Amino acid sequence: MTDLARARGVPAGKYVEGLGVSRMAVADAHEDAVALAANASRRLFATAGVEASSIGLCVAGTETGVDHSKPIAAYLHRLLGLPQRCRVYETKHACFGGTAALLGAIDWIAAGSNRGRSALIVCTDIARYALNSPGEPTQGAGAVALLVTENPRLLAFEPGISGSYARDVDDFWRPLYPKVAVVDGHRSVQCYLDALAGAYDAYCEAATLAGYDARTLARRCYHVPYGKMAKKAHRHLKQREGLSEAEADASYEVEVASSLVLPSQVGNVYTGSLYLALASLLDAEAEAIEGERVGLFSYGSGCCAEYFAGRVEKGAGEWVRRLALAQPLAERRTYSIEEYEAIRAADDAVDQAPVHTLNGHSPAGMIAFVGVDNQRRVYE
Ligand code: HMG
Question: What is the pTM of this model?
Answer without folding.
Answer: 0.98
